[in-house]
Amino acid sequence: MLKTLGAQIKEFKKDSVLTPVFMIGEVIMETIIPLLMASIIDDGVTAGNMKHIYLIGVLMVGAALLSLTFGILGGQFGSRASAGFARNLRKAMYENIQTFSFSNIDKFSTSGLVTRLTTDVTNMQNAYQMILRMCMRAPATLICAMVMSFVISPRLASVYLVAVIFLACVLGLIVSQATKHFSQAFPKYDALNESVQENVSAIRVVKAYVREEYEVEKFKKASNNIYKIFCKAEGIVLWNNPVMNFTVYTCILAISWMGAHMIIQDTLTTGQLMNMLTYCMNILMSLMMLSMIFVMVTMSMASARRICEVLEEKADLANPEKPADQVKDGSIKFDHVSFSYKKDAADPVLKDINLEIKSGETIGIIGGTGSAKSSLVNLVSRLYDVTKGELLVGGVNVKDYDMEALRNQVAVVLQNNVLFSGTILENLRWGDMEATEEECRHACEMACADEFIQKMPDGYNTYIEQGGTNVSGGQKQRLCIARALLKKPKILILDDSTSAVDTATDAKIRKAFAEAIPGTTKLIIAQRISSVEHADRIIVMHDGQVDGFGSHEELLKTNTIYREVYDAQMSGSGDFDEKN
To answer: What is the DSSP letter of 401?
Structure first.
């Protein structure tokens, strides 16, 4: 874990080294100041030597200024190092997430990834800054003060030693108890973020069903769970102050009483007693700082583990050593293909699929909910890897392709259509960053999107809100189809992508495909038989298997499921999810 996190310090190594150096410099100056103060009292005030007072006073001012300068520089370099470390962590996590396959992403919830990129990274940033500054300053102060105390008076310094041992035991107990609660808090942040994310993304549904009170209550419950955990943890940590104050005042009383007797006996000077009291505060405050460091580091350990889970996650899919970078054509062959989302699953999602699709064919895919239609097409662009068998595209196993080269030739319009904040043109150019406005318009004409875009006030420069909330479901689907067409793919997959489009528009889109991209293999998943009946061939999926494969006319004669659903839909009722 340390190696994984340490690799993200990168260009901030210099800042990370200079910070503790300046912190130690600050501590040294603070240790010297009490010695100079003792000299002023013993050799200046007591002896009435004003020259000595002025000289040592100047030295004290110089030491104080150096201490201030070292502190400022330590803070500056520490802030830069910790902020840079946090930036690199976010960047590294985000870049690694982009390499994840769908199976990798399935391991982490969206809210969990958001928490890792925000709250967990902030905890690491605070902890790293504290390690660089306080973790150096506190032990250095403790060591310097203890050494100087024993040099001045071993007898009085023994009081500190007892206090240090006592505090170390008590603070260790406090930290160990608080740690248990802090480590439970961060998974609760995931639940809180999930509640917020669901509410904001589905706010229209929430309002339509008048569920605001329910959502508020759900958020309050998630927030209250975090509140309770932190209250327990902070309630334990609060014992730091009373224990520290008790120890400090006990030490001051003991040292004052013993020191007064030693002054009367001429074994200690007044200045040395002042020194000892100053070092007393330094030692005990450094212990308190150490306890807070332990709490912060303990809190950050949970965050560190969660961050490393993302950084160390390796993509399930990888390019071969010498990948093929050209897709010859859009032919597809499933050779005894089986697939499971989890390797240890008892029953595969797809079972022994054998299909051969010629380049340029239009293939319809129909079946009931859960029949694995989407799983079948997801394998074509290698969003998942087959569990058994082989899948060939253009005569080459998909595992032998460079994934970017393969996916550039396979355009997918998924069930959940996603548009990004930006203009319509910017969204369309996800398909081809170099596409001209004329090419974008042509793609929109094929997708029957140009007609509604022209009616918008700013046309193709109309701004799309986050998630495409200012366009209808059907308009969103048509824009996503146009975006896919701009890729000029050899294979086009439409995963129930015209479900929100009226029948007439659906027919226009299919006609445009047949005329404009005859050489592109088209896989069209649909619930309506009318959307696929004109396809060259149709795949009927049932329970993860191919129940039928042929033309509309052939399936009407040979496939019971297809015929029953066709009859039901033609009579105005029924679909693949109805029991006939």
So the answer is: B
Report strand pairing: 545-550 vs 537-542.
antiparallel
The DSSP bridge pattern shows strands 396-397 and 422-423 to be: unpaired
163-175 average pLDDT score = 79
Nearest residue to 40 via CA among 278, 266, 253, 286: 278
For 51, residues 6+ apart whose C-beta sits below 8 A from its C-beta are none
Residue 575 confidence (pLDDT):
56
CB atoms within 10 A of CB 465: 12
DSSP letter string over 92-114? HHHHHHHH--HHHHHTS-HHHHH
Burial class, 495, CB count within 10 angstroms (exposed 0-12 / middle 13-18 / buried 19+): buried
The whole-model pTM stands at 0.69
- Contacts of residue 62, Cβ cutoff 8 Å, sequence gap at least 6: none
**Distances 143 to 223, 252, 283 between C-alpha atoms, Å:** 43, 19, 8
Which backbone phi and psi does 392 adopt, to 5 degrees?
Answer: -110, 135
Give me the pLDDT at residue 513, please: 80
Q: Lowest-pLDDT range, 54-68, 142-156, 421-435?
A: 142-156
Q: Token pair for residue 378? A: 């997801």
Are the C-beta atoms of residues 510 and 534 closer than 8 Å to each other? yes
Encode pLDDT of 274-289 as tens digits. Answer: 777 787 777 777 777 7
CA separation for the pair 366, 574 (Å, rounded):
14
Buried b (16+ CB within 10 A) or exposed e, 156-190: bbebbeebbeebeebbeebbeebbebbbbbbebbb
First-to-last alpha carbon distance for the chain, in angstroms, is: 57
Determine the Cα–Cα distance for residues 10 and 15; give it in Å rounded to an integer: 10
Rounded Cα distance, 484 and 463, in Å: 19
Check: CB of residue 268 under 8 Å from CB of residue 177.
no
Whether 357 and 331 have beta carbons less than 8 Å apart is answered as yes
Q: Rounded CA gap, 225 and 231, in Å?
A: 10
> Which residue, 37, 566, 32, is CA-closest to 274?
37
Residue among 303, 293, 89 nearest 186 (CA)? 303
Question: Would you place residue 89 in the very low, low, confident or very high pLDDT band (cuts 50, 70, 90)?
Answer: very high
Per-residue pLDDT, averaged over 62-83, amounts to 91
3-state secondary structure (DSSP) of residue 343:
coil
The answer to whether 345 touches 429, Cβ cutoff 8 Å, is no
Q: Provide the CB-side half-sphere exposure for 294 (13 A, CA).
A: 20
